[in-house]
Amino acid sequence: MSSPTQMASLAILVSLVCAALASDAAAVRVELTRIHADPSLIASQFVRDALRRDMHRHNARQLAASSSDGTVSAPTQISPTPGEYLMTLAIGTPPLSYQAIADTGSDLIWTQCAPCSSQCFQQPTPLYNPSSSTTFGVLPCNSSLSMCAAALAGTTPPPGCACMYNQTYGSGWTFVFQGSETFTFGSSTPANQARVPGIAFGCSNASGGFNTSSASGLVGLGRGSLSLVSQLGVPKFSYCLTAYQDTNSTSTLLLGPSASLNDTGVSSTPFVAGPSSAPMSTYYYLNLTGISLGTTALSIPPNALSLKADGTGGFIIDSGTTITLLGNTAYQQVRAAVVSLVTLATTDGSAATGLDLCFELPSSTSSPPAMPSMTLHFDGADMVLPAESYMMSDSDLWCLAMQNQTDGGLSILGNYQQQNMHILYDVGQETLSFAPAKCSTL
Ligand SMILES: *[C@@H]1O[C@H](CO)[C@@H](O)[C@H](O)[C@H]1NC(C)=O
Ligand SMILES: *[C@@H]1O[C@H](CO)[C@@H](O)[C@H](O)[C@H]1NC(C)=O
Ligand SMILES: *[C@@H]1O[C@H](CO)[C@@H](O)[C@H](O)[C@H]1NC(C)=O
Ligand SMILES: *[C@@H]1O[C@H](CO)[C@@H](O)[C@H](O)[C@H]1NC(C)=O
Ligand SMILES: *[C@@H]1O[C@H](CO)[C@@H](O)[C@H](O)[C@H]1NC(C)=O
Ligand SMILES: *[C@@H]1O[C@H](CO)[C@@H](O)[C@H](O)[C@H]1NC(C)=O
Ligand SMILES: *[C@@H]1O[C@H](CO)[C@@H](O)[C@H](O)[C@H]1NC(C)=O
Ligand SMILES: *[C@@H]1O[C@H](CO)[C@@H](O)[C@H](O)[C@H]1NC(C)=O
Question: pLDDT tens digits for 342-377?
């Protein structure tokens, strides 16, 4: 139970943190590792698993978008399957290090806490125990970061009230109570580490839908007030995801001042204002106005991928989705353009990969034919995807790494298409910038 005095000091801490980090020049650099569930896993299994996860996540989003009261919160399928990125961070005092999924499609930061009964999933690192940390506090229910704030609006929460919340993510969920802790970011040398007190997070003691041994929680990087980005008060963050074939190098996430694109060839496009209701309010919407393959502009109706007034449709960039998802009208244009350039026979690779368009290579050692780059035309910026970022090889299959869905749904730029690109989310300026980069050397 915390006294009113403790609550007040917590509230002050939270506002101090924002001020401290925003002016802290030594900003945060975090390594991201991609989950390769098993090095022997062949690419098709990887794609199939990733796709299954994407689809769960997506279906839940569609459901949420269609719920009139917007009560379904930030649904994403959280089972860390191949294609998710993990960041290392540490919680509490003394700091306990763990890895969590880095997700721009949701907000809450959470980890499993002791005591934990049978409803916790197996995690690779020891459980965090709030009672062993000198910096743990209960987040008061009347905090602006309380997930119970809406439910309690207009009432005076009892002193010591702690918010318990069942956060759903597609077919997954986690039951948390909200606390406040000191987190440590930056995995390598202490000089590069940042310790930040007063971060609101969820202590989970029950979850469902997880099937992993690689992550011990999740870090939301979305637009909402509970996300790491919002709580740190950093106006921008960037990441650079290494090539999918590269299983050795780590990717990088930069938060704060060091998140800047020093690369050449930087392009920028404004974020489009998204719906104000959850979970869509969390997403980073972009204005995709067209797609070209090589020099050919595909005939995609101008409004095919735009956000509608009722909050449906639109196009978002997401670190937690693997395969790009397009409305069927746009997808069929892409598909036809790819088919027109490839002389190999198409084959039904859906059983092996879950992908709709696959070609048969003469043998598992044949190189795929050369393909021109694909350009995503955003408002004011062209994103050029080399063939390796939109086609995927798997033994003797060579597939378009994109999926279709019913027209009118939410379209998503997945992380496969973001490989070897340094991507800067400038939430202060409301722009997304990107530049081709060799992410293994960043
Ligand atoms: C929260 O409630 C406590 C009393 O229970 C009060 O002292 C405090 O000022 C309130 N904080 C906010 C942010 O409303
Ligand atoms: C959380 O919600 C999910 C989905 O609605 C449900 O299956 C699960 O039992 C709930 N968990 C708790 C602890 O209430
Ligand atoms: C989780 O913690 C809450 C609050 O302490 C408690 O009510 C609940 O029974 C716990 N759930 C499990 C599965 O231990
Ligand atoms: C969990 O993963 C194992 C092995 O990867 C798989 O066989 C099993 O079907 C999965 N369970 C669920 C509930 O997805
Ligand atoms: C990755 O590491 C393995 C084992 O250390 C090594 O055999 C392999 O050549 C490396 N691959 C690349 C692309 O560097
Ligand atoms: C970009 O340059 C600035 C100033 O020299 C530096 O602080 C920052 O770390 C660099 N960022 C990257 C991603 O290299
Ligand atoms: C999207 O970009 C086009 C072309 O620049 C512009 O005409 C349109 O107004 C933009 N839409 C939104 C919602 O910003
Ligand atoms: C996706 O495309 C395939 C063929 O390319 C088609 O059979 C299927 O109906 C499409 N799905 C949707 C949801 O439009």
Answer: 999 999 988 888 899 999 999 888 889 999 999 999
- Residue among 103, 107, 394, 426 flagged as catalytic: 103
CA torsion 344→345→351→353, rounded to 10°? 10
- In the chain, what are the domain boundaries? 4-35+84-234, 261-441
> What pTM value is reported for the model?
0.85
Q: Which tokens sit at 435? A: 């530049």
Decide whether 4-35+84-234 matches 261-441 in CATH topology.
yes
**Is residue 82 helix, strand or coil?**
coil
Q: How confident is the model at residue 94 (pLDDT cuts 50, 70, 90)?
A: very high
Nearest CA to ligand 5 atom 11: 248
Q: What are phi and psi of 326, to 5 degrees?
A: -125, 150
Domain 261-441: CATH architecture, name and number where available? Beta Barrel (2.40)
| Residue carrying the six token digits 């698993």 | 49
Q: Just give the CATH number of 4-35+84-234.
A: 2.40.70.10
Q: How confident is the model at residue 431 (pLDDT cuts 50, 70, 90)?
A: very high
Cα 413 to Cα 421: distance, rounded to the nearest angstrom? 13
54 is catalytic: no
Distances 149 to 55, 80, 107, 167 between C-alpha atoms, Å: 31, 29, 16, 15
The phi, psi pair for 360, rounded to 5°, reads: -100, 125
Distance between CA atoms of residues 221 and 185, nearest Å: 14
Residue with tokens 């939301």: 220
Q: CA 424, CA 432: separation in Å to the nearest integer? A: 6
Distance 357 CA to ligand 8 centre (A): 10
Calpha distance 15→33 (Å, rounded): 31
Dist CA 182 CA 7 (whole Å): 16
Spell out the residues 6+ positions from residue 278 whose beta carbon is closer than 8 angstroms to its own: 64, 70, 71, 72, 73, 74, 224
Q: Is 205 in the pocket of ligand 3 (CB under 6 A)?
A: yes
Helix (H, G, I), strand (E, B) or coil at 143: coil
What Cα–Cα distance (Å) separates residue 363 from each residue in 338, 368, 393, 410? 20, 10, 11, 37
- Evaluate: CB of 384 within 6 angstroms of ligand 3: no
* Residue 107 bears catalytic tag: no
For residue 262, how far is its CA from the centre of ligand 6 (angstroms)?
A: 6
